[in-house]
């Protein structure tokens, strides 16, 4: 009898123990574990896809006495993305670390992190979630410091402390809920939760702690140095998966646990912080001098988009609109997971083969590393949100629903963020393709260029959004 | 200076306000809600768990999955410490008086650890307490100048550190393959399985704590034990 839920957590854990005990075999054992875990995770996802949400009572005691694992569609989607990305990172790591000493340090911590990720996505128990957060934070910080440089150690010590503060705050909220309702099972607490000081304090503590881990502006200060100084496969995991785990948990709490407690004002606050993250993160990404720092700030911005969905989700009543919005949110999270992991792995290759990742000196990278440059371009398509990427659909739904609800200001932020994303992606690509220094000024002949620029901007941004007035205009003659 | 004086007033005020709000929430949580609580339910089912000490029942049976992952957290901490570099230089060897005291204290700590491990089934005790005593024995050895805190060389230390979690997860997986479910002990075997898991966990916790005290990857020197 196989239980895919327990296996998805236990297999990487078993692998981590084996590579701890047999460091000489870490590459082979690690890859074997990675393949087996991915197979289990995909099997789990396919089962849920078939319409059966999975449930497992560990220890056979049943809730509330025992701990349950659960996989619904949201969990399964993230598990599938996380495990595919983790498999790609594992393959990349066999090349990146080789058989060096750092490979022996990488594998046990990496598999522990993988186990914690799956455990977090599948957990249905508030305290068990805390344990998973601890394992995730600890292994992530240790992995981030593997480069051994002073900056990496400093950045990841800060990351560790911030992460501990976040999980402690979360735990305080769990303790409050347990005091009041006497159970730790997520569904049971959700069923008996009533508005009041307990629910509101727990909401503030738990979501607040997780925002710190999710690096929502202005709590993102720890992310860029930690992600930019880690070895490339680790940066990919931190940006694509670990941050996503915290966001998943915020979403889980927001939609399942505190449904009916959250107010539109609370959603609006998170949305505004998200908008700040989009603008500030994109701007800093545009100004970044190093490729990995650019990717890290781009993560700050992409996290912002995800939080901009929350005020709309809270304001939209149950129905197809809300489901579309949720689909778009998950699609954005999945797309960013794949894109950012790809971006970081390609950046790692650039850094390894040129010895640096300074954007200013990337000239000619396209000639020497065509696949890596193409990867940066493709990931860039997803980061900008060009069709047919998932980001395009997600932003489309976000803008549409924002306008439908009369909250048009989110649409402006999305557009500004998209333009900034295009700018920072093309800045890298332009450097990679061109040995020449870029000209000092943006416009060479304003009189000829500005009209052309306006026409192009109108075609890209104006006409599509003006479809409604154009339709009215077309109907006017009848 | 003005800003900092403002801070010395504002930050305590803000913290006390947050504390007051949290206490209010806690108070209304304690008094406001009646209904079935987990603690009573857990106490009622302790006899079925294979351990008569309720704490052990919760840690090793009802919520064994949490404990398994906590052991993994401990391992991650040790691996994280090791990844940062080699251990600091050992302390200089202790003088005769301290040395003879250590040779008394360490065996007693080990025996007390074994006792706590065994008694954990019925009374306060268990793997974490016993492991802490073993760890303390290692710290005592390190402080009195043993370079490896009485621990074996790195390859065996790795086995020792992972052993507890390995026994735990293998028992869980075996029970799953037998059709009982992950970490679902058959009642007849519960006591034996809990004791096996706790023994492995004690050794791993003791070794992990002592190795963490050394503060880095073990040096390649042989153990200079008499």
TrEMBL record, chain A:
Residues 123-419 form the NADH:quinone oxidoreductase/Mrp antiporter transmembrane domain. Keywords: Cell membrane, Membrane, Transmembrane, Transmembrane helix. It holds the Pfam family Proton_antipo_M. One of its GO terms (cellular component) is plasma membrane. It is a multi-pass membrane protein. Its main location: membrane. It is found in: Cell membrane; Membrane. InterPro entries: CPA3_Na-H_Antiporter_D, ND/Mrp_TM. The chain crosses the membrane at residues 6-25, 32-54, 74-94, 106-123, 129-147, 159-178, 198-222, 234-255, 261-281, 293-313, 325-350, 371-388, 408-429, 450-476. Belongs to the CPA3 antiporters (TC 2.A.63) subunit D family. This is Oxidoreductase. It comes from Allochromatium palmeri.
UniProtKB/TrEMBL annotation, chain B:
It is found in: Cell membrane. It holds the Pfam family MnhB. GO terms for cellular component: plasma membrane. It comes from the Bacteria. InterPro entries: CPA3_antiporter_subunitB, MnhB. The keyword Phosphoprotein does not apply. The chain crosses the membrane at residues 68-89, 101-120, 126-144, 156-180, 192-214. It is a multi-pass membrane protein. Keywords: Cell membrane, Membrane, Transmembrane, Transmembrane helix. Residues 98-191 form the Na+/H+ antiporter MnhB subunit-related protein domain. Belongs to the CPA3 antiporters (TC 2.A.63) subunit B family. This is Sodium:proton antiporter.
């Amino acid at each position: 009898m196989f239980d895919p839920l327990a296996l998805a957590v236990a297999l990487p854990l078993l692998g981590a123990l084996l590579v701890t005990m047999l460091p000489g075999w870490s590459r082979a054992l690690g890859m074997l574990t990675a393949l087996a875990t991915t197979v289990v995770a995909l099997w789990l996802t396919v089962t849920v896809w078939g319409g059966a949400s999975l449930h497992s009572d560990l220890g056979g005691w049943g809730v509330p006495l025992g701990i349950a694992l659960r996989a619904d569609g949201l969990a399964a989607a993230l598990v599938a993305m996380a495990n595919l990305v983790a498999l790609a990172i594992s393959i990349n790591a066999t090349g990146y670390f080789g058989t060096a000493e750092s490979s022996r340090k990488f594998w046990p911590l990496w598999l522990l992190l993988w186990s914690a990720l799956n455990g977090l996505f599948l957990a249905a128990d508030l305290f068990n979630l805390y344990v998973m957060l601890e394992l995730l934070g600890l292994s992530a910080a240790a992995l981030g410091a593997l480069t051994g440089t002073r900056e990496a150690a400093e950045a990841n010590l800060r990351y560790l402390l911030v992460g501990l503060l976040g999980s402690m705050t979360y735990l305080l909220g769990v303790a409050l809920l347990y005091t009041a309702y006497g159970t730790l099972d997520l569904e049971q607490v959700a069923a008996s939760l009533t508005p009041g000081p307990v629910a509101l304090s727990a909401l503030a503590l738990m979501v607040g702690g997780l925002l710190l881990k999710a690096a929502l502006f202005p709590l993102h200060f720890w992310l860029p140095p930690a992600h930019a100084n880690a070895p490339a496969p680790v940066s990919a995991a931190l940006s694509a998966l670990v941050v996503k785990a915290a966001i998943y948990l915020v979403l889980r709490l927001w939609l399942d646990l505190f449904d009916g407690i959250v107010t539109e004002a609370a959603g609006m606050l998170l949305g505004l912080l998200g908008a700040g993250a989009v603008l500030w993160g994109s701007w800093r990404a545009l100004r970044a001098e190093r490729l990995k720092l650019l990717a890290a700030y781009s993560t700050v911005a992409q996290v912002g988009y995800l939080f901009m969905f929350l005020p709309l989700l809270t304001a939209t009543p149950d129905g197809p609109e809300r489901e579309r919005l949720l689909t778009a949110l998950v699609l954005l999270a999945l797309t960013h997971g794949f894109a950012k992991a790809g971006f970081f792995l390609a950046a790692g290759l650039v850094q390894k083969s040129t010895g640096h990742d300074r954007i200013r000196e990337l000239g000619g990278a396209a000639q020497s590393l065509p696949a890596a440059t193409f990867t940066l371009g493709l990931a860039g398509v997803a980061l900008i949100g060009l069709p047919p990427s998932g980001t395009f659909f997600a932003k489309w739904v976000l803008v549409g629903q924002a306008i439908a609800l009369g909250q048009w200001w989110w649409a402006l932020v999305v557009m500004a963020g998209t333009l900034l994303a295009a700018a920072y992606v093309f800045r890298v690509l332009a450097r990679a393709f061109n040995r020449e220094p870029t000209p000092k000024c943006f416009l060479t002949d304003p009189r000829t260029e500005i009209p052309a620029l306006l026409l192009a901007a109108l075609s890209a941004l104006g006409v599509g959004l003006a479809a409604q007035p154009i339709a009215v205009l077309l109907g006017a003659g009848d | 200076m003005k800003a900092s004086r403002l801070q010395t007033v504002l930050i305590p005020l803000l913290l006390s306000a947050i504390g007051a709000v949290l206490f209010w929430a806690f108070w209304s949580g304690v008094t406001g809600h009646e209904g079935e609580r987990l603690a009573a339910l857990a106490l009622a089912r302790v006899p079925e768990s294979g351990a008569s000490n309720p704490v052990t029942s919760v840690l090793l049976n009802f919520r064994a999955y949490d404990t398994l992952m906590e052991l993994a957290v401990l391992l991650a901490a040790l691996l994280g410490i090791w990844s940062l570099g080699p251990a600091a230089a050992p302390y200089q060897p202790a003088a005769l008086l301290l040395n003879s005291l250590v040779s008394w204290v360490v065996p007693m700590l080990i025996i007390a650890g074994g006792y706590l491990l065994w008694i954990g089934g019925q009374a306060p005790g268990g793997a974490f307490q016993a492991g802490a005593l073993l760890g303390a024995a290692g710290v005592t050895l390190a402080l009195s100048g043993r370079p490896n805190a009485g621990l074996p060389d790195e390859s065996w230390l790795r086995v020792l550190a992972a052993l507890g979690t390995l026994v735990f997860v293998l028992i869980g997986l075996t029970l799953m393959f037998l059709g009982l479910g992950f970490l679902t002990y058959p009642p007849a075997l519960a006591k034996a399985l809990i004791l096996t898991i706790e023994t492995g966990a004690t050794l791993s916790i003791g070794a992990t704590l002592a190795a963490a005290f050394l503060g880095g990857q073990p040096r390649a020197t042989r153990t200079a034990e008499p």
